[in-house]
Design goal:
about 25% strand, single chain, alpha+beta
Length: about 325
C-alpha cells in the first residue's frame, strides 16, 4: 500500500493537471475515503500550497489560478512524451528562434529524472532512427510568435515588419485569424485592411510585431489552415495549369494535395460524394512543369490537359520515354 506521503504527492499531481476535482473523484484515484482526501488537502495547505475549495454541485478542490508549482512532477510516460515532442519538433523545424531552448529544457528534464527513468529514456532516444533528414528551416522569433498568437486570440490588429522572398521590406497592419504550421514552417494568415484581401506571411520573415488598439471580427468561411493551403494553390507562378481528371477526390488529392491544386466538379451531379468517380476540374500554378507528367502518370486516371500546351508536350515525351524503356530486352 502507498504511504500517506506518497498519496499526498499524488493528490498534488492530480490538482496540478488543472481544473476542479471532486472529492469523489480524488478519493477514487487515491483509493481512500472522502474524509482522508480532506485531510490530505489540509497537509498541502500546511505546506503553503494554495488549494481552493469550490462549493456547489460540481465543487471540489483546485489549485489557485496563476500558481506556479515547483518542482514540476512528470510520470515516466509524461517525461517520454515531452522529450519525444522536443525531438520531433526540432527535426520538423517547428521551433522558435532560440534553438538552444529545446536542448536546455531537455537537459533540465533529464537532470531531475530518477536514474532508472533517465536510463530508459536515453536507451529509447539512442535506439531511435528516422527515415527523413532533420528540418533545415528558418525559425520564427519567439517574441513575434507569442505576440501574434495573443493578437489572434483577442482579435486585435497587429503591426508587423516583413521582408518578402525578394528582400523587400515593408511595415503593414494585419487582422490575423490564425497561426498555421505547415511542412516545417510557421505561417500567419489574416486580412490586410489597407487592401481588403487575405494574406499569408511566413513568421520567420517577420522582424517585429506589436499589437494595436481596436478589434475586428473574424470572417466566416474556411478555417486558417484551409486559407493557407488555398493561398499556396493560387499563388502567382510562371505557369497556370488547368486539367480535367476522372476519379475520386481522394485519388486526386493523394497526388495533388490542397496546397498544390484546387479542385471542383467539371459537371456537378447531385448526390455525388467524394468517393464517387467523376470528372473533376483541377487548377494549379507552378514555376516549373517537369514534375507534373510523373505525377499524372502515378495518378493513373483518365485526364485531359486544357492548358498549357507545353504540359501536353511534356506528357507525350514522358510516355514515349517510358514506352522506349519498356521495349528494351
Amino acid at each position: 500500500m502507498p504511504r500517506p506521503t506518497g498519496r499526498v504527492l499524488t493528490l498534488l499531481e492530480l490538482l496540478q493537471s488543472g481544473g476542479t476535482r471532486t472529492v469523489a473523484e480524488l478519493a477514487d484515484r487515491l483509493g481512500v475515503d472522502g474524509r482522508t482526501v480532506r485531510r490530505y488537502v489540509d497537509h498541502l495547505i500546511d505546506l503553503d500550497v494554495p488549494v481552493e475549495s469550490v462549493r456547489g454541485r460540481y465543487g471540489g478542490y483546485r489549485l489557485a489560478p496563476g500558481f506556479r508549482l515547483p518542482p514540476l512532477m512528470l510520470s515516466d510516460d509524461e517525461a517520454l512524451a515531452v522529450l519525444l515532442g522536443l525531438v520531433a519538433g526540432r527535426r520538423a523545424g517547428l521551433m522558435t528562434a532560440e534553438r538552444t531552448a529545446s536542448e536546455t529544457v531537455s537537459a533540465k528534464i533529464r537532470r531531475v529524472l530518477p536514474k532508472h527513468v533517465a536510463r530508459r529514456l536515453d536507451t529509447l532516444l539512442e535506439s531511435l532512427a528516422f527515415t527523413d533528414q532533420p528540418g533545415g528551416f528558418a525559425t520564427p522569433d519567439a517574441g513575434v510568435l507569442l505576440t501574434i498568437a495573443d493578437a489572434v486570440r483577442h482579435r486585435r490588429p497587429v503591426s508587423i515588419r516583413y521582408t518578402d522572398r525578394d528582400g523587400r521590406r515593408s511595415e503593414r497592419t494585419l487582422h490575423a485569424y490564425g497561426i498555421v504550421a505547415h511542412s516545417g514552417r510557421w505561417y500567419v494568415t489574416g486580412t490586410d485592411p489597407e487592401i481588403g484581401e487575405d494574406r499569408t506571411f511566413r513568421l520567420d520573415r517577420i522582424a517585429d510585431a506589436r499589437t494595436l488598439p481596436g478589434s475586428f471580427e473574424a470572417p466566416v468561411g474556411p478555417d486558417p489552415a484551409q486559407r493557407v493551403l488555398s493561398g499556396f494553390a493560387t499563388a502567382e507562378y510562371r505557369h497556370e495549369v488547368t486539367l480535367r481528371i476522372y476519379g475520386t477526390v481522394e485519388q486526386i488529392r493523394a497526388h495533388l494535395p490542397a496546397s498544390v491544386a484546387s479542385l471542383e466538379e467539371h459537371a456537378p451531379t447531385a448526390g455525388k460524394d467524394r468517393a464517387t468517380e467523376r470528372w473533376l476540374r483541377v487548377e494549379l500554378r507552378a514555376e516549373r512543369l517537369d514534375w507534373l507528367p510523373p505525377a499524372l502518370a502515378s495518378l493513373d486516371r483518365p485526364f485531359v490537359i486544357e492548358r498549357p500546351d507545353e504540359l501536353r508536350d511534356l506528357v507525350i515525351a514522358l510516355a514515349d520515354r517510358l514506352a522506349s524503356y519498356a521495349r528494351q530486352a
